[in-house]
Amino acid sequence: MRNPWLRCPVLITGCSGFLGGWLTQELIHRGAQVVGLVRDWVPDSRLFREQLDQQMIRVSGTVEDAVTLERILNEYEIQTVFHLAAQTIVGIANRNPISTFETNIKGTWNLLEACRRVSTVQRIVIASSDKAYGVQSQLPYTEASPLQGYFPYDVSKSCADLIAHTYYKTYNLPVCITRCGNLYGGGDLNFNRLIPGTIQSLLAGEPPIIRSNGQFIRDYFYVKDAVLAYLCLAEKMGETGVVGQAFNFSNESQATALAVVQQLIQVMGRSDLSPVILNQAHHEIPHQYLSAQHARNCLGWTPAYDLDQGLRETVAWYRNYLSQGYQEGKPA
């Protein structure tokens, strides 16, 4: 079979982030010419820790800098764009909404405007989120559900999503949008998130912390499935009826925060440790989960991992990562 990524010039914004590192690795493996926009040098990110940056073209800059974005697209004759760069932490967005809006909203329109002005760009995949749907009375979310974020992070994703739609509708820009559930997997260094934080606590022999009341419902979506979903979507964008659409990606197996923590306790054999429930989560959506029927029907996509498989691989990754950190005498 022909490899559509061989020598294909690809720009990934947010390549040093959690999803970005895994997507970069897979595209390098498939022979793409990867150009990555990097804002901060984070030595423990997979991009640098596993020396992926040495197998790609790395450009320092931010999505807030429109001139740099247009220069990258022109000079490297980019054909495919994956726009992942974002401020992704809900708590940070609540504390500092303006910086979140600058990155998530302005960064998106900067990128799309640069793509509009550069003729080599053939396909653009914009990372939105299930948070763009906001609070809904009917679940699961479908792509027809209105975008109605209320809180700062959710609003930033709703806005970026709508801006992507307008660039397709107004300028016929070849855009598709992804809306994924809560991503998890090895390489997520934000230990305030439920899954990496729980694994870190259990490995240290400490009770895991649940910030909410434990009953918030989410889709937990394994990062390797997300990478395959992004690539599947990009490859299908040449087919009729795909460009301009949004796609939900989920394994359609929602769970409460408490259930995920209990499953991790079982996987890691730490039944002696019980979670501490703080009930301190504010300005967050209590229940959200996605229907991925549209992606199944239109793209022929299905997830490769269930929650148990994904959690077991994730635990193994953090067990190795954290043990290396302790051996080197530094907090991991």
UniProtKB/TrEMBL annotation:
Any idea where the NAD(P)-binding domain is?
11-314
Q: Name one Pfam family in it.
A: GDP_Man_Dehyd
Top-rank taxon of the source lineage equals Bacteria
Please state what the protein is called: Sugar dehydratase
Gene source species: Neosynechococcus sphagnicola sy1
